[in-house]
Amino acid sequence: MIEKEFKLDHERLKRLGMVEAIWGQHKSYEQICEILRRFQATSQMALVTRVDNKKAEKILDTLESVQYHSQASCLTLGSPLDLDPSLGEVLVVSGGTSDVGVAAEAELSLRMHGIQTDCLMDIGVAGLHRLLGKLERFTKARVVIVCAGMEGSLPTVIAGLIPQPVIGLPVSVGYGVSGGGNASLLSMLSSCSPGLLVVNIDNGYGAAMAALRIIKSDLFKKY
Amino acid sequence: MIEKEFKLDHERLKRLGMVEAIWGQHKSYEQICEILRRFQATSQMALVTRVDNKKAEKILDTLESVQYHSQASCLTLGSPLDLDPSLGEVLVVSGGTSDVGVAAEAELSLRMHGIQTDCLMDIGVAGLHRLLGKLERFTKARVVIVCAGMEGSLPTVIAGLIPQPVIGLPVSVGYGVSGGGNASLLSMLSSCSPGLLVVNIDNGYGAAMAALRIIKSDLFKKY
Amino acid sequence: MIEKEFKLDHERLKRLGMVEAIWGQHKSYEQICEILRRFQATSQMALVTRVDNKKAEKILDTLESVQYHSQASCLTLGSPLDLDPSLGEVLVVSGGTSDVGVAAEAELSLRMHGIQTDCLMDIGVAGLHRLLGKLERFTKARVVIVCAGMEGSLPTVIAGLIPQPVIGLPVSVGYGVSGGGNASLLSMLSSCSPGLLVVNIDNGYGAAMAALRIIKSDLFKKY
Amino acid sequence: MIEKEFKLDHERLKRLGMVEAIWGQHKSYEQICEILRRFQATSQMALVTRVDNKKAEKILDTLESVQYHSQASCLTLGSPLDLDPSLGEVLVVSGGTSDVGVAAEAELSLRMHGIQTDCLMDIGVAGLHRLLGKLERFTKARVVIVCAGMEGSLPTVIAGLIPQPVIGLPVSVGYGVSGGGNASLLSMLSSCSPGLLVVNIDNGYGAAMAALRIIKSDLFKKY
Amino acid sequence: MIEKEFKLDHERLKRLGMVEAIWGQHKSYEQICEILRRFQATSQMALVTRVDNKKAEKILDTLESVQYHSQASCLTLGSPLDLDPSLGEVLVVSGGTSDVGVAAEAELSLRMHGIQTDCLMDIGVAGLHRLLGKLERFTKARVVIVCAGMEGSLPTVIAGLIPQPVIGLPVSVGYGVSGGGNASLLSMLSSCSPGLLVVNIDNGYGAAMAALRIIKSDLFKKY
Amino acid sequence: MIEKEFKLDHERLKRLGMVEAIWGQHKSYEQICEILRRFQATSQMALVTRVDNKKAEKILDTLESVQYHSQASCLTLGSPLDLDPSLGEVLVVSGGTSDVGVAAEAELSLRMHGIQTDCLMDIGVAGLHRLLGKLERFTKARVVIVCAGMEGSLPTVIAGLIPQPVIGLPVSVGYGVSGGGNASLLSMLSSCSPGLLVVNIDNGYGAAMAALRIIKSDLFKKY
Amino acid sequence: MIEKEFKLDHERLKRLGMVEAIWGQHKSYEQICEILRRFQATSQMALVTRVDNKKAEKILDTLESVQYHSQASCLTLGSPLDLDPSLGEVLVVSGGTSDVGVAAEAELSLRMHGIQTDCLMDIGVAGLHRLLGKLERFTKARVVIVCAGMEGSLPTVIAGLIPQPVIGLPVSVGYGVSGGGNASLLSMLSSCSPGLLVVNIDNGYGAAMAALRIIKSDLFKKY
Amino acid sequence: MIEKEFKLDHERLKRLGMVEAIWGQHKSYEQICEILRRFQATSQMALVTRVDNKKAEKILDTLESVQYHSQASCLTLGSPLDLDPSLGEVLVVSGGTSDVGVAAEAELSLRMHGIQTDCLMDIGVAGLHRLLGKLERFTKARVVIVCAGMEGSLPTVIAGLIPQPVIGLPVSVGYGVSGGGNASLLSMLSSCSPGLLVVNIDNGYGAAMAALRIIKSDLFKKY
After folding, report:
1. Which pTM value belongs to this model?
2. Which residues of C touch B196 (CB under 8 A)?
3. Which residues contact G98 (CB under 8 A, 6 or more apart)?
């Protein structure tokens, strides 16, 4: 039998400055507890994504110092990393109510790495006035993460209005041809707004880590 | 051998009020001439779509009364139908320079059926100010046809701003995932703006015939 | 944590003349109740689509003035809008018994906006006599919405027979290559009948809003 | 180097009663001549499909007894097989002018095997009266082959009207989502008319061989 | 509300010689009972496909004269139609154990229409000797229906060996790229064996109705 | 006829700090000349992408001050923008010789906006030593753009090794399943390296504009 | 009714040297027991794949000599085959914790055929040092099976480093575009490392049988 | 401008025992000459794949010691590597005449690495007797490479008959759903014959390198 031991990439924090995220969806209650215990033993921070309410409750009953974030469906262990707040803030935007879960995963992942965040929900392009009335909130952000399901137009509209890095985060919300998030993903990749960046469907953690890379890229300036 | 004779649907005009359109792309110079001669013989109007410059020139050399519309890549025979101008006007909008050919096919098809038209080109969402500055042009239209390639967001933005029927017309402009017009089509079908209607990629004639059906639906009111 | 507050687009009624529809499928019982209470507080009409029997029952137990329409799987709040009946009637047609749910969503959405409706069920093209025997019912409609799963031929056949606007509404009924509604959608988009319009798979509400736009486009005539 | 010799399946005629068809599209002028010479040497019949005009002319210049059928884009060698005419006739139907090439390949393949054929072109469902006015032509056929591109509804409508075997033959005519024949193929496979049979896109020869199998299946009755 | 009444195509038996099949998968226990009662009232035969064990048991408890065929997951009402046995027999073949359900649906549909059937299960091409050792069973059949999931090679191999009509019936058995039956369907459509016919994935009833059309095509011979 | 006039988004430079890029692939020699003349008239910089050798030569013969960059298949007008070099440098990496064209489009677009660039070609993962031997070149870059066709693993490997922003740029190089760049795109979107960003296939200009947004995001820090 | 009897390919062991594997996923508890009893009756070895915990427990309660391997989700009957250990060992590698199930199916299938195995888990390319630090484990293997989900880069990196046969085994782990394993499969097929071999998604048994064929190919050397 | 220099992986021969293959399809005459000159200068062997007749002729005119293999569309430089013939022979099989080019690329690549080869062309499954009559040729091979387009059944049939490693090589021959080789690829991946290995469509070189890895894996036995 294959040894069950998980070889976590403990060097990731040193190498990339990122907390290792454990993808919880296909892991059992027992597997997640075992992983978290190992992190606890070495006093490391941990982030477990895609943990539903039921599984989370059982884990919280077993492990004391773990916290559950129900909107983001994530478990965390330990306190957020420190980061110089002057590096700037990341704005997380979403087009509709159904995108909130993915937006929350991104927002939590940012905060766990010490990044300042702001949020703007429900400003989809079907009612453009909701977006245009909030433009000054965008001027305060260094990076903008835009969650959108359905036809995914929101990141295109925003990237045409502002000069900052915009990360399109497609969401698997929809039905028919938009179900699964594919229409939204294709729309973002095809964007006529120059320089829109894209990550995988529902990948809130990935969008956050990309924003972290951008925020911390100051270290690689040529002083 | 199968008899080469084309059985055109001459009843279409009577039944649907539409001129029969001949799809010219895969027809030879000889086939198109033969079809047009038959229309001429019965003094009927005709519209041949997707005829490139070279084929058109040879046909114009052969048949006198035919006209070529190079922007729309269409041939026409006969003069436009009459229609009551008070039924209202159709506005044809396009997002980028590359959509002009499809927009022109739609616009010509409308005019051949006697419909008043207006056109707004190059108002893509990557520069939203171009669209927002033209909003009053939209209030004069009864139906709006919106051509868009790439990520196809324009019809969604417009259908969120105005109450009239909006017909999304995806255009096969792009590269990578947007090549062939599929991303644009999916985007329009997935639109979060309620009531956006869609036709096949590059189907300028179809969008025009849908607008014609709408314009003439007054006949089916319950006076 | 992201504030849970839903920013509904209350301007939609004023701007587009449409009641905001809430997509109920991925919302919890609690979320739907919260939204409906806010509508109640401001005496607004509301339409919640894709609510199954179980969820509906719990909501009806909690909120008094809400109504459930089981065939359409929709909840409504408030009474329908008023609309001039002389604007004409919309005919909702379906090919098979399994399309009834989607047809009912379209029909209810129309009635909530004050539009007169008629319905013809089970007239699929596999038994063409059922359709041909009902043709005079079509002459009384200003717009026809045609629901079809499987191979989706029905809208093509109807759009070849009548001059009114025809909206093809693909239904996710089928198995193998027709499962999910994709074959039906492609068939409608590819239609050889000129001017057939299409909306997303199962999008009964969208088809209805498109019909509403058409019916009310009289306001944009050039008197 | 791999020996260039072609190992033709000369047993096919004995085993299946079918003339071997050579797929000419990707073969050079030299390769086709070489193959035909070998057939000539053994006095066998041959059928080469998908040979364009230019290649055909060069081959006709080289090999005397070969015949070219330009509508079907096929070369034949030798005279048709004999078959008892009382076995019945095959009707080849097409929806539009652009399907004629594929229909002609099917019709020629049938005639080369001695089968009686009839043809009905240009009876697409967009003008249903053209089909309904010809129904008695269908009662004389034992098998019906129906060619259709675009949305491919024609075989579904026909298979709902007649009890004979109907073979749907999708044609790669169209643009946008119907380009390549895929929408038509999916439509036929999804058909709500029970017992519709389907072959690959543009496979006129295959549809003919299927009809041959049906016509000759009398040999396997239980007298 | 849309009237719930089902408009069954009672003319189908007269027109096509086929019993109407009701697709049971998405219908509730109540809907199926209601339909069957109407058939009972007019003493008609009925076939309901895709009914799982649980639903079937409840229906059998309610309606007396109904029979359940668990292997085929079908309900039937009434006794099979009469058919001249000399018209020949249909052989139903399957490649693997997992195809048995679809094979059984085909076989039952044939028997309900009075057709003689034979069955050969588990003769997949991975062990070719199993097929080659049974070849004489094929010589007794007039039509062969071949069920296959996975890579779907079996119909190709059989159609290369025998001259009768072969109907490929792809089965949604598999995983990875073969899950859902798509690889099997594509394989059958692409077959290098001339004249292989194909129906939709899992469409046992459709394959049977196609065989019925073939068997009864004798009526259209030219005596 | 639709007025041919191009409405360029002259505000883009002011709004986004980006030179407008004209997509040259589907534009004629005449159209490109007309556009460039208008830029010349207002002394603006311009970038035209996807212009092949032949078209470029004709344009250079007509317009004096235009420059052609054959490796990048781009035309430029005017001199590069000024940018503070201390903002840091962008490293453009490619996996194979065939990616050079796309890499060059990215590199030129960066230089036209005043950004310092470095290039590393031919360091594909099939020979990992080529990459590992060059790691210190990566430590000098603030942003890394990684071009890769075929299976597209290179950006994943690099993003696992360095903490800077990495932009995956899929290239349409390959054959079979990798033809068109789709396998590479999916691979980058699916990456197990956290925070890898992706743009459309062959979109060298887009990758460059994303890097520009990142480099200039310093303006949005919270000093 | 179709006879339920399973015709197992008992010759497979003699012909191919492989134990027949029964695919347990879609088989019921009763079916699996029946099959295993027949194997027991003839004292043959058996391997049943894809059996979940619940089904396995019921089977173990019924049949004594059966063993369950929970990590691999497989049942086995009988003891492993004998094989000369000098033929060499197979190394099974996986990129992430979630691939362990598929890796275990491969590993168990190898051991049941008497092959020596070694395992390396959790050495994904996102942390390349984990792989590079284990290279000498690879030099002891004759064949390497590499399991990978997500973007599937691991087999490409390994096949570029070692000269032995490498079998890429895509795993259906992921979400968005990587869900279902398709991105991983395409990546492996597109690999720029020469001679990488691929099997179907999640096909652990298949990868093992391919390794067995390679290990035993010594019998076909030309001594 | 990016330096044009190609960084060839000269270590590949030492590391993997493989000659570097240059993919010639998208390289110009000049680029190929430049690469070959560099190989010549260091007296290394080279293989350039996918070079058409015209390009080859120009190169042969320029470089003396280069050889063109027209059936395989490959150029080679230098003489084949030496390999112990007792390691065994590789049999290259193809289903149809149109697969010969891909088969020849595989066969040449094997010979350039010193491997003994045998070839069997035109033994497709549509005429199974051609394959069954040649079975003893298979017993002399250590590895079998099977090229197949269309429905790609041949590797499945062969892998069910013989115990050696079988490498399925899908060929982009076909039309409709089989065009591009996708049906063939899916068929091979889905194969019900255990242990069939697969490479990318048309990847003759890749299949050969996989066979080389297998043949040379003797070095990793445990003596």
Report:
1. 0.96
2. 199, 206, 210
3. A23, A26, A27, G149, G171, G173
